[in-house]
Amino acid sequence: MEELYRDKQSIIHQADPRVKIIFTLVLLICINVTPSGAWPAYLLFLTSLFSLILLSQLGLRFILTRSLISIPFVLAAIPLVFTGPDPFTQFFKIGELPIVISQPGFVRFVSIAIKSWISILAAILLSTTTSFPLLLSAFRSLGIPKVFVSILGLMWRYLFLIIDEVSRLMRARASRSAAAIGNNHSGGSVFWRGEVTGKMAGNLLLRSLERSDRVYAAMCSRGYNGEPLQINKKSIKKPEVLFLAGAIVTLTLILLLGFFTQA
Amino acid sequence: MLFSPKPMHIPDGFLGFPVSLLFWFISIVVIGIALRKTSKQLGEREIPLMGVLAAAIFAGQMLNFSVTGGTSGHLLGAALATILMGPWAAVLIMTSVVSVQAILFQDGGIIALGSNLFNMAVVGVFVSSAVFSLVKKLFKNERTGLFIGGGLAAWTSIFIASLSCALQLALSGTSPANLAVPAMGAIHALIGIGEAVITVGALSFIYAARKDLLKPDIAQEGQSKSVLIGGGLLTLILIVLSPLASSHPDGLEWVAEQKGFLENARGSLYSLIPDYVMPGISNEAVATIIAAIIGAAIVFVIGFGVARAQKKSAQ
Is A237 near chain B, with CB under 8 Å? Predict the structure, then answer.
């Protein structure tokens, strides 16, 4: 697993993380509230987002591949196509059995898929252009409790270390579990394999508990007294405030357009 | 190692905005209480302990075992964290895990994060906490109680959380309840078995290596009555609502329409499909609900009785 953040020097990377977070939130809320079937609004949201993606110099291909991650969940909305309200149209026939789809249900399904895709693009843009420590300090100055931000910070600090530990555990298991060719698993029954995995998880938790003791001791020895470090506060620059205000007005206008043009 | 999305994380766009707001509100309240309680219980140790354990649960979700064909069993970890650290700390651990998955890996949406937190960090933890402490009291033998209680807690937490997820989708008008509830429930009844096996395996390892971590007084330090009652109530409500919603999908749509939950509610889009009403079904739903309530009541009474008897014999 790799971090999504890509270090570049683009104007989007250098923008104040607070501005980026607020912009993303407003964009996500506007997309979420836009009614289904408002195709022109979707198109405008998408073009404004794509212009930012181009400015970020990240490469369309990377972002588009990544944005496919929510595709499996679209399954949850597919039933709408068949169970949605009247009017129904005959889609095609299998033998004697006519397959009918509901038109409003279909519109709603496509809208959900598009909305979810635009939302994911926006979230990817935020996390690929802002490193996690910067995001955290922005969260802090936006009013998320200090303790929680510190927990997230420490989690991030140890995440990749512990992921390496998991890889080592899995490699150790794999190297001790030879399987015949054409057999996709080795060892005993499903339950036995599950139990072994469980013991690996138990092992991991114990090691992590002990690691947290060591981390705490190390923090104490460096003068930690329960108060997380303060982050120095910079005020947001004026052009960025202007950009944010302009963006919020534009997004609200697109949202209004969405209400007038819904199918 | 590839990061693969997990089925219970709802992406953005699938939930209605009022539904998202409602569950954001509930989750924030519960997480706020959890922050206060763990600060009191753990003091300055809170930050390193919660941070490292959240990283461990996040990484532990990558542990898998092949089941059959291409499918594999995974760990989600809500029950394990609850049994090891107590419910309030577990709420914080799962909150950190689910938030980082949403913010950094787009596994689950950001507007939908409130609902995902409710399902996995609130329902998952409270339900496992209630089931674990109830079932454990049923057994005299500490070891049997630990393993059976742990396994049941793991399975129930996954199953009930998936019902909650399905109901949120139905309430938003994304998935009809009569399809979403049985489908999510059935898939997660299976996924829950994997979770239960892994959780029991982990508990047996910890029991062998560091028995002191599983001593009842430590695990139950944060186990207040409110968590027990909350977990029990959540289980009951979701068990009652699910069959009701899935046999009266129109009922839920009606609620959605009345409350303006559906974006399309303004038109006659969700008008009832004619001759959809089936006379037998309302009785069926009522029967299921009554059975569920009686079952839960029996389990509760037995658990309470056994606990009483044990206390008396101990005195």
Answer: no
Q: What is the DSSP string of B40-60?
A: HHHGGGHHHHHHHHHHHHHHH
Rounded distance, CA B309 to CA A221, Å?
49
Q: Which residues of chain A lie closer than 8 angstroms to B31, CB-CB?
A: 148
Are B291 and B254 a contacting pair, CB within 8 Å?
A: no
> What ipTM, to 2 d.p.?
0.89
Cβ of B60 within 8 Å of Cβ of A201? The answer is yes
| Interface-testing mutation among B10, B35, B47, B93, with chain A (most A C-beta atoms within 10 A) | B47
Q: Say which residues have a Cβ less than 8 Å from residue A89's Cβ, sequence separation at least 6.
A: A100, A101, A103
Angle between helices B225-247 and B177-209 in degrees, nearest 10: 150
Q: What angle is formed at CA B31 by the lines to CA B29 and CA B34, rounded to 5 degrees?
A: 115
Those of residues 198-227 in A touching chain B at CB distance below 8 A are 198-209, 211-212, 215-216, 219, 224-226
Contacts of B199 in chain A (CB under 8 A): 198, 201
DSSP B184-202: HHHHHHHHHHHHHHHHHHH
B306 to chain A, closest Cα gap in Å: 30
Q: Does A145 touch chain B (CB under 8 A)?
A: yes
Judging contacts by C-beta atoms under 8 Å, the chain B residues touching residue A115 are 12-13
Nearest-5° angle of CA B9, CA A125, CA A247?
A: 110
Report the distance separating Cα A48 and Cα A24, nearest Å.
12
Q: What is the pLDDT of residues A116-149, one digit of tens each?
A: 999 999 999 999 999 888 898 899 888 888 889 9
**Total-model pTM:** 0.83
Asked, as a colleague might, if the bond just before A87 is cis with ω within 30 of 0, I would say: yes
Size of interface A-B (CB pairs under 8 A): 285
Q: B146: which chain A residues are within 8 Å (Cβ-Cβ)?
A: none
Residue pLDDT, tens place only, B232-276:
888 888 887 777 776 665 555 554 544 444 443 333 333 222 222
Over range A46-51, report the average pLDDT: 92
Q: Read off the DSSP letter of residue A75.
A: G
